[in-house]
Amino acid sequence: MITAGKSNLERKQTMFKKIISVAILTATAGMASAQSDATKTAGPYIGASYSYVSVKNDLTSGGDVKLSTVGALVGYDFNANFAVEARLAAGVGSDNIRFFGRDIDVKFDRLAGVYGKWSVAIEPQLDIYGLAGVTNGKVKATLRGVSDTESKSSGSLGVGLTYKINRAYAVSIEYARLYSDANAVNITSKFAF
After folding, report:
1. What is the DSSP track for 88-133?
2. Does the predicted model carry a pTM greater than 0.85?
3. Ranges in the chain, pLDDT < 50
4. Among candidates 90, 78, 83, 91, which has minimal Cα distance to 160?
5. Residues 6 or more apart in contact with residue 34 via CB below 8 angstroms
6. What is the pLDDT of residue 162?
7. d(CA 75, CA 114)
């Protein structure tokens, strides 16, 4: 719950602590139950993603910058509870920042990351998971035909739900804290070999 008396920094710290708590609980539960779920086999998978990203606007007093990406992912399930995943995405949606009467167009050039993913089955076809890793993003800003880019890397955390349609195909929705000033809602689909 956000109260009117808390500063932006305090709200961000509270949200970050909640994300870490959920990720730790999910990881602990995943490791504890790793031996108990032998129905899922290990192996590689590929997938696609769509992300809606909100980035804090430090340049002006305007609201957050809303961006979107589409991308691909590749991963490896070591067992039913642990996987490693790499993602690469390109920006498809941009936003404008009004700066001294001019519109600056802002867009992700690329967004890439590598994550460890801990899953726990809460139903036979439904998993909850936490992920932790590193994200690198490159943002492109354009003003009157002149462009500039800025890259940033940071540790990232997230939580999500996966619905397994069958043994090979699944869809997920997740919330991820990509950077201290960027949050994402991701929708992914994956196909396991």
Report:
1. EEEEEE-EEEEETTEEEEEEEEEEEEEEEEEEEEEETTEEEEEEEE
2. no
3. 1-5, 30-38
4. 83
5. 79, 80, 81, 82
6. 96
7. 9
